[in-house]
């Protein structure tokens, strides 16, 4: 019984230290019993994501806490982890209660002597929402193409309707007359670009104007040549300078319209400012690189420091008292080895955290 209390004390200290270390790390983390679905621990970032500021996870099952269900999720993968404890699962999770998303890794580990799983990862809600916005704009582009084809076939002037649709969508819109090397710009597009409504000798005259920044002119020209030569569509990002003097990242989507002989005659072009998206993409790349560099050793370092501190705390006591903590230390050592994926780091940690080594060295005198 003493051993159980000691292990409980050890893991209670582990939880407190985990809270301190992961508080500002940006990682969301949760530990759940693999058999009963009981939640053992949810860190601060995960609670904030789920809008739980009072620790309501205690004594709840994961499916109750995360999804407001009365039984395990239909696609729950805990049974697979029970059969394959060495399996590591990467998943994108959606939490409907606040429409948030997490990119998570899931592993099996020992938690206070019990089989559990740990979920940890990054909040990617903004990235997912931005992607959905881009997909919605792509659907709008497809609708515009349909309207253009209908207008051409029926010889009906639909420019006013198109202008209204484009303005509401907050996009720049122009058409490229491939046969005559001419671009016709929607009114808002021409005003913002500071160009005429009709641009002759397109795309050269636009590319060599103030609108397209010099580093992106060759890219713009290559993509337009592909369309001219019959490519069905194109998508690329360039930096454009508009009339008010500001510079923006713009994502340009192009779709080609063909005649009855399948010859390209026209292209529909849409531009959308994506400054925020580009900034988020760069930040996401940096964050991915940082997470790969750390290689999940954050949790291992937490456990390593905890193991050392427990022994130091009791070094003034007789060695018999220290040995009462051996089971808790072994649990922590196994827990740490579970989350280290780098073989060299795992071996260093295994050597350092040998229980006998720690007891012999921190309890003398």
Specify the biggest β-sheet.
6 strands, antiparallel
Tell me the total number of β-strands. 11
N→C terminal distance: 28 Å
Radius of gyration, in angstroms, nearest whole number: 30 Å
List keywords for this structure.
365 residues; alpha+beta; 5-stranded antiparallel β-sheet; 11 strands; 23% strand
Architecture blueprint of SSEs:
Elements (H helix, E strand, L loop, with lengths): L1 H21 L5 E6 L5 E4 L1 H6 L12 H6 L10 H6 L5 E7 L4 E12 L2 E10 L1 H30 L4 H11 L2 E6 L4 E4 L1 H7 L4 E3 L3 H4 L9 H12 L4 E9 L5 E12 L5 E10 L1 H20 L2 H17 L5 H5 L2 H14 L3 H10 L2 H8 L3
Antiparallel strand pairs: 1-2, 1-5, 3-4, 4-5, 6-7, 6-11, 7-8, 9-10, 10-11
Helix pairs in contact: 1-11, 1-13, 11-13
Walk me through what this model shows.
With 365 residues, the protein is α+β, with helices and mostly antiparallel strands. It has 15 helices and 11 strands. Strands 8-7-6-11-10-9 form a 6-stranded antiparallel sheet, sandwiched between helices. A 5-stranded antiparallel sheet has the order 2-1-5-4-3. Strand 3 and strand 4 form a beta hairpin.
